[in-house]
Specification:
Layout lengths: L1 H19 L4 H30 L1
Helix pairs in contact: 1-2
Length: 55
C-alpha cells in the first residue's frame, strides 16, 4: 500500500513539474507512466487479495 501511495505522489509531483517548467514536458509523460504503473500494481493487489480471502 505504501508503494502505491508513493508512486501516486511521485506521479503527481512529476506531472506538476512537467507542466510548470518549460522544456521539461517529458516529465509529464513520465508522471503519467508512473501513475499507470501504480494503478496496475493496485489492481493486481486488489485481485490477489480477493482470491486469498475466499479460500
Amino acid at each position: 500500500m505504501a508503494l502505491v501511495l508513493f508512486l501516486i505522489i511521485l506521479a503527481i509531483v512529476l506531472g506538476i513539474v512537467g507542466v510548470v517548467a518549460h522544456g521539461l514536458l517529458y516529465l509529464l509523460f513520465i508522471g503519467i507512466a508512473v501513475l499507470i504503473i501504480a494503478m496496475v500494481i493496485s489492481a493486481v493487489r486488489f485481485r490477489h487479495g480477493g482470491r486469498s480471502a475466499n479460500r
